[in-house]
Amino acid sequence: MLSAANKIEVTYHDIRKDISWSLLFGSAAYFLLNDQDSWLFYLAIRAIIIGAFTLSYWQSRNKSLASLPNETLQASHNHELPLIRHSYLSGTDPDQLDEGERYYLGHCIKRGFAEYLELFVEKSQFKHSSITLVPQQIMNDLKKMQSEEEKDAYLKEKKGVFVYGRIMTFFNQTNPSGFLENLYQHNIKSKIDNEKKYILFPRAAFECVISEALFTGKEIKSIISQVDTLICNAQYFDLINSNCHSGSICVLAVAIEHLKRRYAKQWYDSALFYKQGNNTDIYTDNSDMTAQQIRNLSLIMLNAMKHNLGQGVLNNPEVITQVNKAIAIANKFKVQLSGELIERDVVENKGFRFE
Hints:
Layout: H1 15-32, H2 39-66, E1 102-111, H3 114-117, E2 127-135, H4 136-143, H5 148-158, E3 162-168, H6 179-186, E4 190-194, E5 206-216, H7 217-232, H8 244-271, H9 284-304, H10 317-332, H11 339-348
Antiparallel strand pairs: 1-2, 1-5, 2-3, 3-4
Helix pairs in contact: 1-2, 7-8, 8-9, 8-10, 9-10
């Protein structure tokens, strides 16, 4: 249970410490054995450096992974969605979303090099990470369908599912330039963009987990714009410290903050700080729904952080900051949220933005 009684905080894995330990051991071995002058000596030094880095890396990464909760997502708390093929995707870019439409937000992965790796293993563990948006009407229609074949045919016809991920722009298949020219022109730029425009593991389908949380197109635009600023524009897409997982996890974390802001705005606009009795919430139904959505989206986010051993997430300080902000919200946001908490939030944060 994500609650104040069981506080969770994800531990940041600083790879620089692993590098420092490996160089320290390597330097110590070099000075102790520097009278040796053979290729075996230099090979041994390299082995010590690599071994020390590997040991330190795994210890630190396991510590970070251990800080994630062991809770599993309950199927009843998520919307079921079949495998999403590339042909099911909408061509609408994030900045073109209908601001009045409502979308269920989720997370998805695409297994890389599956056609080769799955000759040797059951499922490829090399995963690309994105977010998924499903319009409310499409989700309502899918709930009425029984067979996977019927759902597949419907999704292929509608082409209404949105998959947005952080991708390097030179992968854009609509650009007529060649790969090397694209690489030169785009200079390893990245942004949260529509996956339909990109060639990335084209034979693999997206495996999606969809939350209960609904967002308007306007809210999604604001969330993506914030993540573009925090991650895509501020960090190089180096695959190690910052990658596709950095972007998608940050989107989920920022979305949780938006859920809290939305509730605060609704409370402020509707109640006008009017409280009944002993500072109790006069909108219990809305509070209960928001608390469930925050908890549901938090669990999806925390489970998604385990993909690829958390590379680009657990070792990315900006992502960890946003994740721990989201977890703090989930820890404090009780079903019976008091008006006093919201009022304090508004008063203390003079620049409080209700986006």
